[in-house]
Amino acid sequence: MSEYWLISVPGDTKEGHSSWETLKSQTGGLSNIWKFHIPADLKVGTLDTLIGLSDELQKLDLFVEGITKKVAHYMAEIAAESENGTQPKLKANGCELNQYVTNFQWDVAKYPLIKQTTLRNLAEIIGKQVTQIDNDLKAKATAYNSVKTSLASLERKATGPLLTRNLGELVKKENFILDSEYLTTLLVIVPCNLEEDWKKQYWKLCDMVVPNSSERLFTDGDYSLFNVCLFQKVVDEFKLHARENKFVVREFVYNEEALAAGKNELNKLESDKKKQLGPLKLWLHVNFGEAFSAWIHVMALRLFVESVLRYGLPVNFHAMILDPSKKMQKKLRDLLYGLYSHLDNNQILSDSKAEQVDIPGLTLGPKEYYPYVWFQLKINIFER
Known about the structure:
alpha+beta, subunit c (vma5p) of the yeast v-atpase, domain 2, 2 domains, four-stranded antiparallel sheet, 12 strands, elongated
């Protein structure tokens, strides 16, 4: 399942009627149902605190969900380039996501329930934790993407068209006249359809060009790379006349140390990328689980706060998680309405469909309202 319903209903009555057993027995065939374990020792606080916290938790819910999906989508982006596009397997606390949700237990090690810890304290702990994950993700993504971009740029120069390609891989020392006081060698890009023109006239483009000094060094099918020997004093004139004939002189100086440095830079970037990739993938998997776990804890806090506000004190409600199929959602909604419509003292609802109502103090704006507390949880992280 990718969509769950988190609901709470009033707890056991004085007559001993169990809301859990009633709902479990009547939802057969419509939905699986599990208890959603919310700690009994959460601190309720005052009514004003709960009302304010309701709004804050809704904002925190959206924030944590957003960061959870942000981490997951970056995981998918990394997997697409390093694992042939295989979608990453998302887990939380070592479990499949649906297993984690349906067997949820409050993590007291991360979010302690000691006497002094209030609901707002817990929300702040979760908020700081997820904010740190977001900050770390930005830093790690920036560092990795920087190396990846630099590497891609060098690779494009090494394999791109001759007009922009790094020519160092295509030439040899013997293709140049080096250490001459008067002569120099130029590299010229010639369109393949003009090769014959080049061969006939390159040595006539200006004076002091050495005849029979040009040979084709490489071709990519569209352009060919030629060298040519000439006197240094006519280089500018030669470039001008070459351009007039659609021959492109590439700026290039043969320097073995510079060529070696370029190869070293490429090798270094490839090595840096590999060194960062493994730890980055591990970090993403671990911190996706941390963010997802934090998100479900926020949902637990929201369900607790809204249930206390709805049903009052002393705290007495059952929290449950259901996984209705789309075909059964209408029937399940009708069943729930039949069981709990009596809770709606104001008769806000006229039928089993939720109306858009604004409940001051409980929401940030209009939302779906039912006589029981209800939240939708979609765990298909990659679904837009």
